[in-house]
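Each field is listed here:
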Amino acid sequence: MALDMVEFQKDVLDLEERCQRSRASHFIDANRWTNANWWLGVFSIVLGALGGTATASTAGGGSDALVIPFAVGFSFLAGVIGAVVSFLKPEEKASAHKRAGDGWSILADKFFKLARTDISLKQPDELSKMLDDLIAEKQRVTEASPVISQKARVGVSDKNSKDLRASTFQVGKVTGRIKQI
């Protein structure tokens, strides 16, 4: 029984599209974490500067009772934002999502290349091994990737596509066709 080139390409290109969606989702999340890091940093700096300025204005002997609570409040908020940044580590999360997006991009390219392989020049066992290797690599990339936010998933899915949570990787469907040969 011959391998159906059209079905093989369709299945592998479907896997490539899923990799592209994961890639896009990770880059969306990376951008969100980068923006969060930037905004939290700016607010922390501004509040710290306001707190320091208010404190300095009272150091000259002026005992304005209204300035001291503002100085304490601004300094407190700057400290809280600094603690939030230390706890969330948005820059590390952004870097992790960028690395994951790069990994998914490389994997998508490999699936695309496999879909363009002339299967008439390859033995079915060789194609099966190539696909199994990519599936194993996909598993490694999945395990190494941070969790994608639901907002990023929805951001890359269009109206006609399935929810990314429901679109699982169907290994049996693709490998089953190859192993039937």
